[in-house]
């Protein structure tokens, strides 16, 4: 907590976790923004004390809860191993990283799971007994977390007065940044809220580009709380668009002819929780009656083949679809905005991680969308543009065949509601870091993804004639 009295800042308490320090940084930036010259030295001194003494980076992150935990990659080679693995992982109650649940385990497809330290011996014995081979991707999860948000990057984050796009930011910092973008770039950046989350946090959206454009693009990030690279990308894209507006002819054309609605953190409650309590939290934070488990998968809660294959009806599962479609205030608020503006919004883009894929409908079934040629062409152009940056390869195609079947997804809903181009990115990497993509990889990841998004948006300014000029009721 920070108290400001008589032109001085006094640090009264700083708990030994990542949250206290990020809060200090948030308030230091607010004060710097107001140019209170007499307050800043004392406040920055407090930040430095907290950073170096009271909050030693890594030492108390998440109360050391992940010490000794591992991430395993298991690949069943036949149907017998698939059945055995489903039973083992169901019994152990592991945290699924990829795919999202045991029901999606298939032959010869990798399964990445986070195993608690006290379960490692047990799972090793069970896998060995069934002759199922596996490899260790991360041998100590706590240490990997400390690497991602460790001492070097923490000091960097707190020492600079300018916003750093190459580190991960807390919800408070991101929302403060959004206000600052609107304040300093009013001609290009608007700010509004589409509603409030379950816990009462505002759901802020930036409108990027010249006003009153006939066509628009929606981009959301942070649907799943633990996928921190998502919000990092949304911020990076806004920064790149603004900084290159005057000299990049392609970006100038896009911002002059399109509006971009950008939601850096869709799941604000979950994202905040992933910084405070559980780094690998995925869902929202809503309470479910008669169950101690909390939250709904915000990408299984949309009103399109709701709670069918690839979604769970059990509140304790990570892919829980919710008690009814749009039960989550976050989903309901965004759906309402998209419905209201569906005549203008020509592309819906949702940023996720991890897998290095670009996906489009359908998610819930194996079928070809009516305007497949146009969407496939846009996806191909995007992946080629992405590859041109660093040579990173992405797979692309229908979500159901490229990744896995899932119902109640946002891209299927967007497509059903007449948005002709609906995409979901699964950003870096393919499992070596998983959800703990290092801050050193934020710049290349966001740079290449920006090229892909620009390619999709540029395609909207051209005409594409699909075989069928209609959109199906799903």
TrEMBL record:
Statement: the UniProt record of this protein carries the keyword Signal: yes
Active site: 426
Residue ranges of domain Peptidase M14 in the record: 167-460
Protein name: Peptidase M14 domain-containing protein
Family statement drawn from the similarity comment of this UniProt entry: Belongs to the peptidase M14 family.
UniProt keyword terms in alphabetical order: Carboxypeptidase, Disulfide bond, Hydrolase, Membrane, Metal-binding, Metalloprotease, Protease, Signal, Transmembrane, Transmembrane helix, Zinc
GO cellular component, one term: extracellular space
Domain of life: Eukaryota
GO MF annotation terms: metallocarboxypeptidase activity; zinc ion binding
SUPFAM superfamilies reported for this sequence: Protease propeptides/inhibitors, Zn-dependent exopeptidases
The keyword DNA-binding is assigned to this record: no
A single BP term in Gene Ontology: proteolysis
Membrane spanning residue stretches: 36-62
Cofactor: Zn(2+)
Pfam family membership, one: Propep_M14
């Amino acid at each position: 907590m920070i108290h400001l009295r008589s032109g001085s800042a006094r640090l009264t308490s700083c708990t030994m976790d990542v949250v206290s320090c990020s809060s200090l940084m948030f308030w230091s930036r607010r004060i710097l923004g107001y140019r209170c010259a007499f307050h800043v030295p004392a406040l920055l001194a407090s930040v430095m004390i907290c950073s170096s003494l009271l909050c030693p980076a890594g030492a108390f992150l998440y109360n050391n809860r992940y010490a000794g935990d591992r991430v395993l990659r298991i690949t069943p080679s036949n149907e017998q191993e698939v059945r055995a693995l489903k039973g083992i992982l169901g019994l152990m109650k592991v945290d699924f990283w990829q795919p999202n649940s045991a029901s999606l385990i298939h032959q010869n497809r990798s399964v990445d799971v986070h195993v608690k330290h006290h379960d490692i011996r047990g799972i090793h014995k069970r896998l060995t007994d069934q002759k199922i081979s596996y490899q260790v991707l991360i041998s100590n999860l706590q240490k990997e977390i400390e690497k991602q948000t460790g001492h070097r990057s923490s000091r960097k984050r707190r020492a600079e007065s300018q916003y750093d796009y190459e580190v991960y930011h807390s919800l408070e910092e991101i929302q403060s940044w959004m206000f600052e973008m609107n304040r300093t770039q009013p001609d290009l950046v608007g700010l509004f809220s589409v509603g409030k989350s379950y816990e009462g946090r505002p759901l802020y959206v930036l409108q990027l580009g010249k006003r009153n454009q006939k066509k628009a693009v929606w981009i959301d990030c942070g649907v799943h709380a633990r996928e921190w690279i998502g919000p990092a990308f949304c911020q990076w894209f806004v920064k790149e668009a603004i900084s290159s507006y005057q000299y990049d002819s392609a970006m100038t054309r896009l911002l002059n002819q399109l509006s971009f609605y950008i939601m850096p953190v869709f799941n604000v409650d979950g994202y905040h929780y992933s910084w405070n309590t559980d780094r690998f939290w995925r869902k929202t934070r809503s309470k479910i009656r008669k169950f101690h488990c909390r939250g709904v998968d915000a990408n299984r809660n949309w009103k399109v083949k709701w709670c069918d294959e690839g979604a769970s009806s059990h509140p304790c599962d990570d892919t829980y679809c919710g008690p009814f479609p749009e039960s989550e205030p976050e989903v309901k608020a965004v759906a309402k905005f998209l419905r209201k503006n569906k005549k203008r919004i020509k592309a819906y883009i949702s940023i996720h991680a991890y897998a290095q894929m670009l996906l489009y409908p359908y998610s819930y079934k194996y079928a070809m969308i009516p305007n497949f040629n146009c969407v496939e062409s846009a996806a191909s152009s995007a992946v080629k543009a992405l590859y041109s940056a660093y040579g990173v390869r992405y797979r692309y195609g229908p979500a159901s065949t490229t990744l896995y079947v899932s119902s109640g997804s946002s891209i299927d809903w967007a497509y059903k509601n007449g948005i002709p181009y609906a995409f979901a990115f699964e950003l870096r990497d393919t499992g070596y870091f998983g959800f703990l993509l290092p801050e050193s990889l934020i710049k290349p990841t966001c740079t290449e993804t920006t090229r892909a998004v620009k390619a999709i948006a540029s395609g909207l300014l051209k005409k594409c004639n699909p075989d069928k000029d209609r959109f199906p009721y799903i």
